[in-house]
């Protein structure tokens, strides 16, 4: 594992997350429940903060399959946002995210591709990323949409009419951009909290 995570004595979140990754690839196996997996993700996030873990951008590079995600909902009492119910992504829908670095060495800039495949339709969004390693924050912005049907591209257009330029993106404060705050990065799976407050868990595409 890339992170030297120390699980708590009462709850081994590392084992739970490892089991979720393995059983998602093997549907015949019993997966950890959504409730247990959310508990593991929250414990991983807490541990990362306590241990002040940081990850270089290069650890995120590659293609990852979305395995589990949570929504958010408003807390009627406080008016804040709390986690909603989590769910495993159905196997008949393939959702992948890919991160690629620029050609410059030691660069925290690169490209992102988010692809959703529901045969025979494929939707792909591409754009730019900038990684802030001290906070494990990855800001991104999609600027191209590609739709394919039976493997043939039927739509390929710039998003926002091509008004988003590279330098405009890099000059934007992170508060104005969508982002992921990664709190767990290993060789086999990664996890993050999105700007909206939801949690996402990906496994490396094999």
Question: Which whole number gives the mean pLDDT?
Answer: 89
Report the CATH topology name: Lipocalin
**What number of domains?**
1
- Using the alpha-carbon principal axes, give the shape: globular
Q: How many helical stretches?
A: 3
The first-level CATH class is given as: Mainly Beta
- Strand proportion, as a percent range, falls in 35-45%
Radius of gyration based on Cα positions: 18 Å
Low-confidence spans? none
Q: How far apart are the termini?
A: 17 Å
Structural class: alpha+beta
The helix/strand series, from N terminus to C terminus, equals HHEEEEEEEHEEE
Describe this structure in a few short sentences.
This protein has 206 residues and is of the alpha+beta class. It contains 3 helices and 10 strands; from the N terminus they run ααβββββββαβββ. α1 (13-25) crosses α2.
Give short descriptive properties of this protein.
206 residues, Lipocalin, eight-stranded antiparallel beta barrel
């Amino acid at each position: 594992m890339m992170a030297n995570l120390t699980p708590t004595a009462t709850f081994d979140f590392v084992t739970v997350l490892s089991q979720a990754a393995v059983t998602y690839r093997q549907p015949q196996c019993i997966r950890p429940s959504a409730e247990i997996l959310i508990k593991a993700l929250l414990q991983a996030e807490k541990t990362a903060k306590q241990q002040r873990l940081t990850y270089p951008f290069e650890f995120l590079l590659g293609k990852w399959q979305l395995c589990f995600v949570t929504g958010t909902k408003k807390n009627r009492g406080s008016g804040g946002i709390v986690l909603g119910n989590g769910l495993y992504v159905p196997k008949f829908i393939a959702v992948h995210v890919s991160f690629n670095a620029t050609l410059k060495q030691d660069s925290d800039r690169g490209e992102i591709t988010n692809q959703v495949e529901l045969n025979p339709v494929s939707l792909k969004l591409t754009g730019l990323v900038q990684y802030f390693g001290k906070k494990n924050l990855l800001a991104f912005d999609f600027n191209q949409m590609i739709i394919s049907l039976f493997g043939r591209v039927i739509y390929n257009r710039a998003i926002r009419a091509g008004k988003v330029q590279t330098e405009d993106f890099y000059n934007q404060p992170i508060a104005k951009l969508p982002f992921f705050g990664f709190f767990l990065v290993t060789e086999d799976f990664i996890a993050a909290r999105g700007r909206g407050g939801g949690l996402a868990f990906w496994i490396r595409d094999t």
